[in-house]
Known about the structure:
Layout: H1 11-28, H2 40-44, H3 59-69, H4 76-105, H5 112-126, H6 134-148, H7 157-183, H8 199-211, H9 217-241, H10 249-257, H11 268-285, E1 301-305, E2 317-320, E3 330-334, H12 347-354, H13 359-369, H14 374-378, H15 383-399, H16 407-431, H17 437-448, H18 452-464, H19 471-490, H20 496-506, H21 511-523
Parallel strand pairs: 1-3
Antiparallel strand pairs: 2-3
Amino acid sequence: MASFPDATLSPAARLNKAVVKYAFELGRDAAPFDYGENTLGSAMGESAGPYVVSQQSGAYSGTPEFLDSQHKVETRADAEAYLARVHEMARVIRQETERTRKDAALGVISPDFILANAIGQQQGLLAVPADKARLATALGRKVREAHLEGAPLDGNWQARCQAVVEREVYPALAAQLDTLKGLQAKAGHDAGVWRLPNGEAYYRWLLREGTTTTLSPEQIHQMGLEQNKAIEARMDGLLRAQGLTSGSVGERMTALGKDPKYLFPNTDAGREQLLTYLNGLMAGVRPRLGRAFNLKLKAPVVAKRVPVDIQDGAGQGYMNTGSLDGSRPSTYYINLKSTENWPKFALPSLTYHETIPGHAWQGAYLTETGKLPLVRILLSGFNAYVEGYALYAEQLADEIGMYDDDWAGRLGYLTAQKFRAVRLVVDTGLHAKRWGREQAVQWAIDNSGRTRESMTSEIDRYCGTPGQACGYKVGHTEINRLRDKAMAGLGVKYDLRDFNDLLVKTGAAPLTVLGDVVDGYIKAGGKVNL
């Protein structure tokens, strides 16, 4: 790759080369950390971290969800491929178990609270009879749906899958569970990666992976403190305007979040109401997208509940981008273990982040235009760009008027922004300043206005994928800096829609490369040459 001089390449090809070069160097530089998930693949999947199996990682968690939500079954070959993947899942679990044992010999054992969560989830999976296991029932459902679509698939596919689950997957999972239980006596309660081999250097690599910058832990920590304070001052003004003056901003937001008028019932019916509300939010923002973009994208997306069997370890909300051929829409997952974690005013910002104009809009450019080569799609896990842009999309929703008649929703948006600043503080606190889990949870509660259950889940997530949570606010801050630079450099030629189109058309890229793209955009007089 290095043998191709930049001078001989088109602007798009130079961009592709710079992105791929950065990705390869990032993967190469993970070599000293020979444990956990520290590879080019994990870095591009936003899943780099110290533990092979945790409350949020491992085949036991990811594979059933993938097969259920993404593996299509329309032909006999599709169904056979599904069964083959279930068979291979057992092999992957065995390999993960071997790697977990190897890492333990190096002193790499997840904290006791992560082990306990993963053990509890695995016990729950094994308690389900094989004929009712999600792996089997999902295949049965897909085959029945294929029948209804006019593609009869003869044979008892669910029974065949049940047999594989019973004879192969469950024994492999039981052995992994025994291994995790065996590590409990050796597990400590310290949460940070500073305690691992070459831990300080490892966290610097994780921050580089998460932010695509060379910012130090201390610089990121201070950025979080400063932005948290600035956003809090803005929130305080909005709260006071509504007569809410008693207590800290965090205490006032906590109280607002407990107000019954903002809560959906914590029942299955209440969860359906919440999902209906999300669909309404997505429909409501579409007519206003022309204020922020020239791009015309369809960006189909559906909202779903995080599956119950993985909700204890899953994130609070996340996006699975649609298939490249456009046959499957993006899926917006929200964790509804408790609807009390989601007061109504907190949902718009999350929805705009995950769907439109956020992640689903980003993904739609890839799936609907075919403008980026496959290597760029495969190497698309530049966390600070991906999450920084989605956080910027939350800001755009405010700028195009989504909160003009919704003061509580605007507070929810600012709470979400503040929460990302809080992440900078607690992530670096855990892994560089040696904070304990409880200290980080309490700091997050005090400064975010969110529930203890929600913040405990979040802090545990940062323990499993250190540095990833820092990408949001670092990326958002840099995008706004670049927007200000473009506005100043272009003067009357500046157009917000062109700038936003440029962000999307660039595709996932390191922040340094994105900066070069914006510089080229300014030199070209505001023309988007991608």
